[in-house]
């Protein structure tokens, strides 16, 4: 019995993540279309009919309905299932890394924001200020209250993230004669810098750029015409790199430092 009780908090966090993942799907669909994320109740994008409560159970409803609307039988995007599962997994990972306490609330917000930003930027190529601007303030609060980051690192991270990306955007515009990086990327980098500190933010820059370049060349190799007059959104790469930096950034930085010092 005691063994089972140990897993109850984790199960609660996972279920909470599923609930927030369901809401994330609402935000991802409605926010870029300038629709209210509060009302009306969830509806089918195809037939516009209100989804009953049993059609809104995270994960289960998608499987039970066989990925189709209960009314018009229109296919439901796998994104809905994936977003719910991903949010729950990230919430659980946050709990396992930080435990109960105030840190967990900040990490819940960060993970929720990253999931929403990933899918909105991937489809619409925008990063909503709704998440990055409050995220900057919350990130600074997290840095101040968390000795592992510290307010100095958080402040420098904020300045490096916002200022560094602003400089890159300016240089890109000079070189390519067009906007190469949007204001959303700049604000997101400032948010990540506040949350992670400047050391891990540099790792985010490196990883995001590396994966973005590799992805570009793979797409260029497989589908060269698909990149004509199109910009690949950078937000999803920042999200991926931020998650890697948060969970494994310390180990990666230590590994790099040890190898670098060993070479010298």
Helix-strand blueprint:
Layout: H1 2-5, H2 8-30, H3 60-64, H4 78-98, H5 102-124, H6 129-145, H7 151-176, H8 183-196, H9 198-222, H10 235-263
Helix pairs in contact: 2-4, 2-5, 4-5, 5-6, 5-10, 6-7, 6-8, 7-8, 8-9, 8-10, 9-10
Features:
single chain; 264 residues; mainly alpha; 2 domains; 10 helices; 71% helix; globular
Helix-strand makeup class = mainly alpha
Number of domains: 2
Query: How many alpha or pi helices?
Result: 10
Q: Name the shape in a single word.
A: globular
Task: Give the ordered list of helices and strands.
Answer: HHHHHHHHHH
Radius of gyration: 20 Å
Overall number of strands: 0
Mean pLDDT level: 85
| Main beta sheet strand tally, sense and closure | none
Helical content stands at over 70%
Q: What low-confidence regions span 5 or more consecutive residues with pLDDT below 50? A: none
Content of β-strand: under 5%
What oligomeric state best describes the polypeptide chains here?
A: single chain
Distance between the termini: 55 Å
């Amino acid at each position: 019995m005691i063994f089972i009780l140990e897993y109850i908090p984790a199960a609660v966090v996972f279920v909470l993540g599923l609930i927030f993942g369901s809401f994330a799907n609402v935000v991802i669909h409605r926010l870029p279309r300038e629709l209210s994320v509060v009302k009306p109740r969830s509806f089918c994008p195809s037939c516009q009919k209100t989804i009953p409560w049993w059609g809104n159970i995270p994960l289960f409803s998608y499987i039970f309905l066989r990925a189709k609307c209960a009314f018009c039988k229109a296919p439901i995007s796998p994104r809905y299932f994936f977003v719910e599962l991903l949010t729950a997994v990230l919430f659980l990972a946050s709990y396992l890394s930080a435990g109960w306490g105030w840190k967990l609330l900040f990490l819940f917000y960060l993970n929720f924001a990253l999931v929403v930003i990933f899918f909105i930027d991937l489809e619409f190529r925008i990063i909503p200020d709704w998440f990055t601007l409050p995220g900057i303030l919350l990130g600074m609060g997290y840095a101040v209250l968390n000795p592992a980051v510290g307010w100095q690192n958080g402040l420098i991270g904020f300045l490096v993230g916002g200022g560094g990306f602003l400089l890159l955007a300016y240089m890109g515009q000079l070189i390519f004669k067009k906007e190469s990086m949007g204001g959303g990327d700049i604000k997101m980098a400032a948010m990540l810098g506040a949350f992670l500190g400047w050391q891990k933010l540099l790792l985010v820059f490196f990883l995001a750029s590396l994966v973005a370049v590799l992805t570009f060349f793979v797409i260029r190799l497989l589908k060269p015409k698909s990149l004509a007059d199109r910009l690949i959104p950078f937000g999803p790469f920042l999200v991926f790199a931020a998650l890697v930096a948060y969970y494994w950034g310390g180990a990666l930085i230590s590994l790099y430092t040890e190898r670098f010092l060993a070479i010298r």
